[in-house]
Design a protein that fits this description.
homotetramer; alpha/beta; TIM Barrel; 8-stranded parallel barrel; two-stranded antiparallel ribbon; 8 helices; about 35% helix
């Protein structure tokens, strides 16, 4: 396909109702717009700012619900893994293991993820450059797994802001992997004194358009029917009913980019 | 017009031959692609890293040659002004006064530029946010001049790099002014020990595409028939023969964006 | 002397009463503590964020009052200069011409300041590294003036914060000049949406102690009897009655550093 | 004691000879200078840039040698832990569990470290502010362990540099914990294309003096008899024979600071 692919879902598995509602809506939109769709939800949040934040329904329940979504809607699925000893278990339920940005240098985790034989999607650390992600790619390749994706999610820019450096899209594509723009977390406002990460969801379209224009292969967008009520990352998620009009525009843009690429 | 406009030319007025060659070539391309074109060259470089760098042919000669270009090719023109007492003189020759990024907070300079009645294009300081450019805009408006443009040219990101924050495009458009992306200087690598600013000209297309996708009204691109021989900013300028294929792509992208904007 | 020197005074010449009060108090403290003292006040604020901010009493009045302070209390004096055509006039009144950080790359200004034969104190731009300040030093030296000082005042760190990089103290001393820490402006919080720069005056002692410990030759501290009522930079100035206990500590620290330096 | 404490040793347990040599030398110096000394060496390097880098002799061997050092020289010891399931085992051998900066947000790891009852030393992430380290502290305290230390090791400043923000020392002391300056890793030059992190060991004294002057309770310094031959972090370690003259100076500085603190 000439189109980009979409990784989307709620930040965390809050309930069966929620994941089913989101998956049904998003898979419907993506069928219409011919966007390959990967369902995403975290079964556990392992690095919340504050210990009192919601971290999930339990790993087995969370993973089970993600698999149920995948089976019901015939979708590939993805979720974060956080320690080497989680990978084999998670791989029984999901198709793409996502390495959180803070953990992208943990060799044991990368190798355990590689060993599952599943696709490994490594998020670029907020402290790393796109070119230096080649070392994460090499660790996974040397473990015999060449199914690798890389995700841009913003870089530390002072304490309370992130900046997206779009040079990282062509730079990371040079590693020979698909590159994804995480349009949700790259708009985080970290280090808030409240312990709740802030955000700028009205800029999701800006981030996504720039990513498609500069050659991103996939987009990552967290979405929720009611972000204000979400149990994690509510400040950044896109309201579910805003997703279709945004994706429509992005597909148009992608078609233009694909035409230009085919000519050059 | 639905198209973006282009500010382009060699970094500095090196010779009459050079400015004429560039203007003729670029105006020909822009006519074909229906891009409104503003000729740019600096008549003086006032903030070169090193005192031994080339700074121009003399203000009167430089300004005179810019005017000659404008007259011959029927083009509006622009150049940098550096001190309040230069503005009135420069305004006799050029149509748009450009305020250098380092100087965007100098009230006297902004007011003197405003007083000429010409268009004033203020480059965002490497140390400023897009929202805070509202104060520069207000200074000029309060002086009775509402013909203002703002230019993004990258933000300090460690000592030896700049990063382009595309959030600044929608943020600066909220000030009610056209917003331009400077695709040349935003790729500078400052603070090199050699005293010669480095660059990444192979990324000009990446910067320009992201800017068009996020709604920039204009692009600024320095171009030279032989950047390696240029007397300033050679590390960043686009080779003149690469300009047309790039602009062709950007116009296609802009047409898609314009269509999407007209629908929403 | 083994001691550091102090550049201090109110941010701007607000009134004769104010400058005399501050000069009398600070010169008394410095005599007691054997600190060489340079009186500082700006005669004009040329780069206020907002055009409606106070900019001074007029250049002639402001400069005249600074000179009156210097004469009355037998103190060397300093103030900012902002454009090449101000330098000769300012040099009639003051002993050290200070180049504002935003302007440290403006060759014409550096050369005009150099030509006065006075000491030139160049503040490191928020966008420059300490090593790259060698080019400012070279411009002034090549104009025949070797009386140069450099001042650290923080570096852009995201939009709304500055960070002081103490590596710049040894790095700038390698240029063969005294190095000053500006303890006031390095604590600014720029780019506030209000147009009023914020601050952290409770950290002045932290900044000053680190500077003395790493070898700074001088300190720059703005002080005011009532910062909350000050017409500029109130958020950062040290309350005048807090100056003596701070300087006492810094002198003790400096004596230890001087002893260690003499041994190695 | 009024003195600071020192955490020091080679980056990684390379061999029994190496750890014994370093411990003997450093403990001798510290006895003479009355500096409380904690022996540090990593038993495993879990986040090397490149998979081909040396990662240790095996956990059991490494931990066993660290314990042997502690027993022989009567020293408390410390080492990094990298995953929740390592903590209980490591706690059998060492006295202080150090949480690597990249992992300071991993709740499972913090809780497992807390549960050992040992002292937990959390390094501030390169992407975190000092104030936001309160959430790491709270996670450990809520687990019933109040023996917490925090370590500053620099903050992301562009891709290839770190900057030490000394405001973090007073800011982190407000969390009610001792604060340590890591003089070694804060001088790293990350994201080098070679995959080998660079450094600036000649600035170790600058970093350490500023830390003592601003109130740090402890210093962390990696040292090696021959850094050029070290198997990890050679670019930043202090040559062992340079340690004593540096510590001598730092103790003098600390005595002055302690005197000033006792007076205010």
């Amino acid at each position: 396909s000439n189109n980009f692919f979409l990784i989307a879902g709620p930040c965390v598995v809050e309930s069966e109702d929620l994941v089913m509602e989101v998956a049904e809506t998003v898979s419907g939109i993506c069928k219409k717009l011919e966007i390959p769709y990967v369902f995403k939800a975290s079964y556990r949040k392992a690095n919340r700012t504050s210990a009192s934040s919601f971290t999930g329904l339990g790993d087995e329940v969370g993973l089970g619900l993600i698999k149920k979504v995948g089976d019901k809607y015939q979708l590939p699925t993805t979720s974060d893994v956080h320690a080497h000893d989680e990978c084999a278990e998670a791989a029984k339920y999901i198709d793409i293991l996502q390495i959180p940005a803070f953990l992208c240098r943990q060799t044991d985790l990368l190798l355990a993820a590689a060993d599952t034989g599943k696709i490994v999607n490594v998020k670029k650390g907020q402290f790393l450059s796109g070119p230096s992600m080649k070392f994460a790619v090499e660790k996974i390749r040397q473990a015999g797994n060449d199914k690798i994706m890389l995700t841009e999610r913003g870089t530390t820019f002072g304490y309370q802001d992130l900046v997206v450096d779009y040079r990282n899209i062509p730079w990371m594509k040079e590693h020979g992997t698909p590159v994804i723009m995480d349009c949700t977390h790259s708009l985080q406002q970290p280090n808030q004194t409240s312990g709740v990460t802030g955000g700028n969801p009205q800029l999701i379209g800006t981030v996504a358009k720039a990513a498609i224009a500069t050659g991103a292969n996939g987009l990552f967008i967290e979405t929720h029917p009611n972000p204000a009520m979400a149990k994690s990352d509510g400040a950044n998620m896109l309201r579910l009913d805003l997703l279709e009009p945004l994706l429509y525009q992005l597909v148009e843009l992608r078609m233009t980019i694909a035409k230009l690429e085919s000519m050059s």
